[in-house]
Amino acid sequence: MQLRKEIEPDFETVERHYPIVLRAIMRYTEYCDENGDEDLVEYNKLANFLHQLTGKDMAQFNLWEWWEEEGAEVLAFKIVLPEPQRVHNITMDEVHEIVKRLKTDIYTSPEDGSLKELFKYHLDHYYKLFLERNFNSYTPI
Q: DSSP label at 89?
């Protein structure tokens, strides 16, 4: 089932910002490898740049040691994916589709190399946050 545009993750924004953010993360890593950043000047520049681009608080992301987590690509994706918004008049079919997407492989198309296909397994936080923002009684498990 296709969800309404205001419910679906905003992959248009992801497509625009992902290469910029990934490049910034990799440049910061290269800088640290060559020069270090004990005073966090470059880290703060990166965090400020990413905040200006996305509007997100960068404190929730591990910009310093991304290699110990899921990698720079997943980090860049999570940074650029806009957070879900409040939506009115959500139908029960839409709720079922969101839960289905949380529980199963949500895209059945063959590997096409798109960012949507590449990061399909990293949308759980998006959908959980969507449910949390739109339903007072939602309790994540």
A: S
Write the burial class of residue 25 (CB in 10 Å: 0-12 exposed, 13-18 middle, 19+ buried): buried
Six-digit token string for 135: 């339903």
Phi, psi angle pair for 31, to nearest 5°: -60, -45
Q: In whole angstroms, how far apart are CA 141 and each of 92, 97, 128, 138?
A: 20, 18, 10, 9
The domain limits of the chain are 11-80, 92-134
Residue type, 105: D
Taking the C-alpha atoms of residue 10 and residue 126, their distance in angstroms, rounded to an integer, is 10
**Would you tell me the crossing angle of helices 72-80 and 11-35 to the nearest 10 degrees?**
130
pLDDT digits (tens, 9 = 90+) for 75-106: 999 999 999 999 999 999 999 999 998 887 55
Alpha helix ranges (H) inside 55-110: 72-80, 92-103
- What's the pTM? 0.88
